[in-house]
Amino acid sequence: MTLDIADENRVRTLTLNRPEALNAFDEALYDATTVALREAADDPEVAVVLITGTGRAFSAGTDLAEMQARITDPGFTPGEHGFMGLIDALTAFPKPLICAVNGLGIGIGTTILGFADLSFMSTTARLKCPFTSLGVAPEAASSYLLPQLIGRQNAAWLLMSSEWVDADEALRMGLVWKVCEPDELLVQARKHADVLASRPISSLMAVKSTMVAPVLAGVDAARARENACFAELMGAAANADALAEFNKGKES
């Protein structure tokens, strides 16, 4: 299984489990996570969802080998839900969502934090939005959600530079809420998840819906703009060269 699911005290923990690929999202993992979020949303026994990763990565983002195959392989078969389905599920998720960033977070491994209600990060973790190094556009409404979350200039650096951000910098920016030692990360994330899960689910959902409602139109508009730019740039010279270089490095 590429996604482990565990329930305890009305908290459902989703653990990305492709450690050999640094928990990069292939089509199967996009589909599994989308379905898991939808099922958690509908389950009256689930109050909170906590997402984390296995091994030394939270998630290395979209599997770049599959991204190249999508461009170059006429026989490539996309998943049932894919990246867009996951972002739909995150946008619509009606309950508290907590991320525990245990290691490297790249691409969607960083932009997912725009959808989190609380984010915890290990002191040894690092985050990066590699869009400009891949010659593509932002994703997951990050061009809208990240300025909202961390301010225009922090978001500009994160989205434009393709540079790593360590835990201290992520905390300073407001990209994460708390930074923990590695062995305390899940302890602290679970402790706070349990507090939320002790509250009435109807009340939790009312708080979240009223907080999120003002930004939904902005999220939808940002996704449309990003998708248009992404479609234009994916497979163009800069992106093709970057993907070829990445996959050549993996083979050597």
UniProtKB/TrEMBL annotation:
It comes from the Bacteria. It comes from Mycolicibacterium komossense. It holds the Pfam family ECH_1. Keywords: Isomerase, Peroxisome. This is Enoyl-CoA hydratase/isomerase family protein. The keyword Isomerase applies. It is found in: Peroxisome. Its main location: other. The keyword Repeat does not apply. The lineage of its organism: Bacteria, Bacillati, Actinomycetota, Actinomycetes, Mycobacteriales.
